[in-house]
Amino acid sequence: MNFGLSEEQILLSDSFSSFLKKEAPLDRVRQYIETGADPKLQQQAAELGISGIMVAQDFGGSGLGLFEAALVSELLGQQVTPSSFITTSVIAPTLLNASTQTHLLEKIATGEVEIGFGCVDALVKQDKTGKITTQVPIVMGFDADYYLIGDRVGNTYLLDANDLENASPLTTIDQTRNLGEITCSDTPAIQVQANQQLLGNALSAGRVMLAADTLGAAQYMLDASVSYAKQREQFGQVIGSFQAVKHMCAEMVAALEPCRAFVWYSAHLQGPQTQKDHIESSVHACQAKAHIDEMGQFVARTATEVHGGMGFTDLLGLHLWFKRIGFNRQNLGSPTQLRAEAGEIQGFFA
């Protein structure tokens, strides 16, 4: 049995990696941080078929699965690329594929729209006129055209950003990501799902994408550390010849290498499922993100130490990857929260 990537998956990974290195270098990331959105980059990704990677071919998408999306997410993390890929191209199609709002899938595939996502730990009720009232404290993919809001029992609502009267951005450590808060007060909404398992699948998909993003960011920091250790000289020799630095780099490799298999297997488990499969995929999504969050934090800290004082400067930009990993760690559940959720899913405790 072949546990590696297929020729098509290797081609996807290589072509998108080349695209990001050319079209989304560090200078362009810095420009995004200073000026805001970069619609040109989104359109370029759509032309490559990345935006519609999980949209069926009937709606103009690539018709691929979460495994391929995880490969893309890893590359986005590796280049610390500003993108709403996780919410627009992964979570949204997961929720909209079985809904009546399939016209949005076509717009996702062509890069015409961005869709944000958030959850509330309460029951959201829709009145007879189709309006809802609720507060969503954290929305991923803020400043989008539409928002998908899920509640604690699995109801999912689609909101048009133009109908929102109260929406404000949140300041986070990661300036390459948009987070916000929205308040709905008699806001028109369309119920797209009333399925707790499907909403759970969307959350699991988002967690696997964040884990893949952290994996890519940590891999970059590891590679940058090895490269720096081979060039930086101290006491007349490169620091990579020092045993302590060798050990630091080796420890990063040992910590990170199993994570790739963890992400790949978790992504492989997502898809049309029975209840038993749903439990397994949800548990693995929680455990994969929890583990990689911690390994990513270790790699980020160690890589910064290898770079010494240079690691804390804006010149290298290493702090952008450090912050990306820190942001991913807290988003859609911290390691402690995710392990507790995995225990609940398996029935270890209530």
Q: What are its keywords?
A:
350 residues; alpha+beta; Butyryl-Coa Dehydrogenase, subunit A, domain 1; Butyryl-CoA Dehydrogenase, subunit A, domain 2; Butyryl-CoA Dehydrogenase, subunit A, domain 3; 3 domains; seven-stranded mixed sheet; two-stranded antiparallel sheet; 11 helices; 9 strands
- Measured by DSSP, the beta-strand proportion falls in 5-15%
Please, what is the average pLDDT?
91
**Secondary structure: helix percent:** 40-55%
Overall number of domains: 3
Q: What's the story with the biggest beta sheet?
A: 7 strands, mixed
The secondary-structure element order is HHHHHHEEEEEEEHEEHHHH
Give the helix/strand layout:
Elements: H1 7-23, H2 26-35, H3 39-47, H4 66-78, H5 85-96, H6 103-109, E1 115-119, E2 131-140, E3 146-150, E4 155-160, E5 166-170, E6 179-188, E7 190-194, H7 196-231, E8 233-234, E9 237-238, H8 243-269, H9 275-306, H10 318-330, H11 335-345
Parallel strand pairs: 1-3
Antiparallel strand pairs: 1-2, 2-6, 3-4, 4-7, 5-6, 8-9
Task: Give a description of the structure.
The chain is α+β, with helices and mostly antiparallel strands and 350 residues long. It has 3 domains: 7-109, Acyl-CoA dehydrogenase/oxidase, N-terminal domain (Butyryl-Coa Dehydrogenase, subunit A, domain 1); 115-194, Butyryl-CoA Dehydrogenase, subunit A, domain 2, CATH 2.40.110; 197-345, Butyryl-CoA Dehydrogenase, subunit A, domain 3 (Up-down Bundle). It is 53% helix and 14% strand. It has 11 helices and 9 strands. It has helices at residues 7-23, 26-35, 39-47, 66-78, 85-96, 103-109, 196-231, 243-269, 275-306, 318-330, 335-345; strands spanning 115-119, 131-140, 146-150, 155-160, 166-170, 179-188, 190-194, 233-234, 237-238. Strands 5-6-2-1-3-4-7 form a 7-stranded mixed sheet. A two-stranded antiparallel sheet has the order 8-9. Strand 8 and strand 9 (237-238) form a beta hairpin. It is globular, with a radius of gyration of 20 Å. The protein starts with 6 loop residues before the first helix and ends in a 5-residue tail after the last helix. The mean pLDDT is 91.
